[in-house]
User: Fold this.
Amino acid sequence: MRTIRLLPLLLSAAFSAQSIAADTLDIYDIDRIMAAAKAAGVVRIDYLVMTHYHGDHVGGFLELSRLIPIEHFVDHGQTVQPEQNSESKQAYDLAITKSPHLVVKPGDKLPIKGLDWTIVSSAGKTLSNSMPGAAAGRPNPLCASFVPKDIKVDLENAQSVGSVIAYGKFRTMDLGDLLWNLERQLACPVNRIGTIDLLLTTHHGMNWSGAPALVHALRPMVAVMNNGAQKGGSVEAFETLESSPEMQNLWQLHWSFNGLLEHNVAGKFIANIEDGATTAAYIAAPPPPSVPGVRQPVIGNPEHLPAYWIKISARADGSFTVTNARNGFSKTYQHLKES
Assistant:
């Protein structure tokens, strides 16, 4: 028996498998890598999936590599934004010359025992064939209302390595920061992914991603938004998730200043919240809506300490339990998807 640990991070996505007395796929949605790794009993990273090279994904690599062994590296290849050449990016470029390194393309599988891990996007390309089972390959009526977005900045996002991960009957998806128009390619004219149980929201819940044509076609029961207090959590993303046809609950990594009172979920579903005075002041006098590419003034506790995570423990029968590390609240969901 063993537990498989998967850590979708704001900095990168890391995977570690250990032989211990359990039989679950444990997913930690986190801000603090090593704190969660210690809690999960992770002593090495077997596969580190670098979705793309923006600072909020590769930025912690240098310190991470000093603190824990990393055995395999997975990425989309060269960056399309050479200016993203931080010290951590340089350390990553050096590391992949010294260790096993996979440049993946859509349709590839990661060789991880116990999981069916399929790459569905990479280097600006998406899966060309429908996945087997899970209601994939069906015409998607939602495509008729799809409206493309003209996004011309931060195009490294479009290179994101996206994954669909199956553990028995349980299915989840993480597309990194894949952009809106590329999401359409996974959903239209047919839904190439099919249905999933758990959605790890794309791009921190920013409105550059999370197209309803894909999100609603996936029919997730649960979503976890890996937003920051001021990063992501857009009103558009909230509304898409709220209107998704089989959505039972949204869990958030942070209370979102962008979502305000109208969209943030109940506190028991949120791992990190700001102090009451900061939140009350912001609600009473919210600033103008944020503009993509324009940095907002920092509000509240920028260090977010202490930092808490959301943990998902999935079983091969498709059921899974989500737990908020801040308050210990948990909820179990049963697998009801068609194959």
User: Anything to note?
Assistant: Residues 87-95 form the longest helix (9 residues). Confidence is low (pLDDT under 50) at residues 17-21.
